[in-house]
Design a protein that fits this description.
The complex is a heterodimer of chains A (77) and B (136). In chain A, strands 1-2-4-3 form a 4-stranded mixed β-sheet, with helices on one face. In chain A, strand 3 (59-66) and strand 4 form a beta hairpin. Chain A has 77 residues and is α+β, with helices and mostly antiparallel strands. Helices cover 31% and strands 34% of the residues of chain A. Chain B has one domain (3-135): Hypothetical Protein Ychn, Chain: A, CATH 3.40.1260.10. Chain B has 5 helices and 5 strands, in the order βαβααβαβαβ. In chain B, strands 4-3-2-1-5 form a 5-stranded parallel β-sheet, with helices on both faces. The relative contact order of chain B is 0.26. In chain B, strand 3 (90-95), helix 4 and strand 4 form a beta-alpha-beta unit. Chain B is globular and about 40 Å long. Classes of the chains: A alpha+beta (77), B alpha/beta (136). At the A-B interface, helix 1 and helix 2 of A face helix 1 of B.
């Protein structure tokens, strides 16, 4: 079943650390349980997003990669 | 509370970008980021010093700035400092020894600076208690 999101952050073209910094800023504006969809083209974001979620307690519901684009669904803790 | 402590010793634009980028990332991961500017880096937090100069004279400032823009980062050093401060998590301290050697007085500091401090205070109150310590 596809994950639905409350908000989308398009971080395409941005490099580390911006995808994570912008994700943090967006998550801070959301309520607990809401889901943020993040689109990134930074190859480093694949591991970074998982590590950031692990560190902050937010839940990485799903991640995928297609044609150089990474998509993440992060649920705010 | 989890914090990051960084010591930066250089003031050349092309040599400190990584440290400042890690500080920016640190604002997304930790509760506090404390930066001690030692040696020439103390100039970074002074009104006169927060200007761009390159260590690698053969480097293209224009190319670096174009690539920084693509990455989504500000290109002006002072703008980077202000972006870090606007997170409310970053503190910039100048090392008192460096300030004495390189002639940076409290009145010379940019408003974003958190003051001139002793290295012992930074080591025992910030670096020692930090979750992670980095040096550039």
């Amino acid at each position: 079943m596809a994950v639905s999101s409350n908000k989308t952050l398009d971080a395409s073209g941005l490099s580390c650390p911006l995808p994570i910094v912008k994700t943090k800023k967006e998550i801070d504006t959301m309520s607990s349980g809401q889901v943020l969809e993040i689109i990134s083209t930074d190859p480093g974001s694949k591991n970074d997003m998982a590590a950031w979620c692990n560190r902050t307690g937010n839940k990485l519901l799903e991640s995928s990669e297609e044609g150089g684009k990474f998509k993440f669904y992060v649920q705010k803790s | 509370m989890k914090s990051m402590a960084i010591i930066i010793q250089k003031d050349a634009y092309d040599l400190i970008l990584t440290g400042l980028a890690f500080a920016y990332l640190g604002t997304a991961v930790y509760d506090e980021v404390d930066i001690l500017c030692v040696n020439w880096a103390v100039k970074l937090i002074s009104k006169e010093g927060v200007k761009i100069k390159l260590d690698h004279q053969d480097a293209s400032l224009q190319k670096i700035q174009e690539n920084l823009t693509k990455a989504g980062l500000p290109t002006d050093l002072y703008e980077i400092v202000k972006a870090l401060k606007s997170t409310g998590k970053v503190h910039f301290y100048g090392c008192s020894l460096a300030a004495a050697i390189f002639e940076v007085d409290q009145k010379d500091l940019i408003p974003e600076a958190d003051g001139i401090v002793g290295a012992t205070w930074f080591l025992t109150e910030k670096a020692e208690k930090a979750t992670i310590f980095m040096q550039y």
